[in-house]
Write a structure and sequence with these properties.
binds adenosine-5'-triphosphate, 2 domains, alpha/beta, six-stranded mixed β-sheet, binds magnesium ion, Alpha-Beta Plaits, 11 helices, four-stranded antiparallel β-sheet, Rossmann fold
């Protein structure tokens, strides 16, 4: 469990984290979502005791990081900035961390195996690909078998296989009952990985809610509809208050009514539905929610 209360951090005139209060519960993946510069990394570094808050506090399992007796056994993190000596092997890097944290040698081999680096464990880290480096960072985070795991943008720059692997790992860690806190600015990725979201913009809390509610709460819900007879369906939908747009590919974009209404109207007409897709993406919901709180935005043309 992570509990942040009124967490605030300033860098000169910039308020990087602004009175942030949220909980991260065990047994689920909680996504920490926000545009670039919204304070995600700063928040994570405060959780890990690397940055001192100007106000407020954050605890891990009820304790501040510096009060944890065996920090590596309670919380593991993959943060943005990773400095690993390039001449070291993965094995020696993890072994030195293990010695520092009072962790057995056997656990080093275990985590190397867990992240799939066994075959390259003795290779110099400087020669590692981005994906291998990321796996090594995750191995380091898991070394102490911690109940709380923080991953800052773990899928940045990874290929499809690496992204899938990270996603599965997060889900597995949560299924084991751990607290998993995962930051990203990639909405689509969060939809697939997270159960719960903490959404921030300009350091402020925008929303704290389950992923499903995040999409549902967006006001601009629209659906792509394909059916056996669109000419029959359109007037019925419009009578029910829908706005319909015929698309070039003989599908229909429908707004203002629910998926249930569309399905039931089609059924009444014995009009076979070939497709009913929710077009309101997590992306749209995110854009809507963070409107006005994005620090850097491309000028609209
Ligand atoms: N060490 C620092 N000194 C000065 N300003 C900083 C420092 N670290 C962060 N900031 C500023 O604080 C704000 C939040 O930055 P942070 O890196 O926490 O955002 P983020 O949400 O992690 O962004 P990204 O998605 O780009 O990783 C930004 O305006 C950033 O420029
Ligand atoms: Mg960041």
């Amino acid at each position: 469990m992570i509990e942040a209360r009124g967490l605030t951090k300033r860098f000169g005139d910039t308020v990087a984290v602004d009175d942030l209060t949220f909980n991260v519960a065990p047994g689920k993946v909680t996504g920490f979502l926000g545009p670039n510069g919204s304070g995600k990394s700063t928040t994570m570094s405060m959780i890990m005791g690397l940055n001192h808050p100007d106000a407020g506090s954050v605890t891990i399992s009820g304790k501040k990081y510096h009060d944890l007796r065996w920090p590596m056994r309670e919380v593991g993190a993959l943060l943005e900035a990773r400095a690993i000596h390039p001449g070291r092997s993965a094995y020696s890097h993890l072994w030195s961390l293990a010695q520092y944290g009072g962790i057995a040698k056997s656990r080093v081999e275990e985590v190397i195996d867990h992240v799939g680096l066994t075959s390259v464990a003795n290779r110099r880290v400087g020669k590692f690909s981005l994906g291998m480096g990321q796996r090594l960072g995750i191995a380091a985070a898991l070394l102490g078998d911690p109940a709380v795991v923080l991953l800052d943008e773990p899928v940045n720059g990874l290929d499809t296989e690496g992204i899938r692997w990270t996603r599965r790992l997060c889900r597995d860690l949560a299924a084991e009952g751990r607290t998993v806190f995962l930051s990203s600015h990639l909405m689509a990725e969060m939809a697939l990985t997270a159960d719960q979201l903490v959404v921030v913009g300009k350091g402020r809390l925008i929303a704290e809610l389950p992923v499903d509610d995040f999409v549902a709460c967006s006001s601009k819900r629209s659906f792509k509809v394909r059916a056996a007879n669109l000419d029959l369906l359109i007037p019925a939908l419009e009578d029910a208050g829908a706005l319909t747009i015929r698309e070039a590919n003989s599908s229909l974009t429908v707004t203002n009514v629910s998926a249930e209404t569309i399905g039931e109207l089609a059924l009444e007409q014995q009009n076979a539905l070939y497709e009913l897709t929710d077009l309101c993406s997590l992306e749209d919901a995110f854009m809507e929610l963070t409107e006005g709180v994005v620090e850097y935005r491309a000028a609209s043309r």
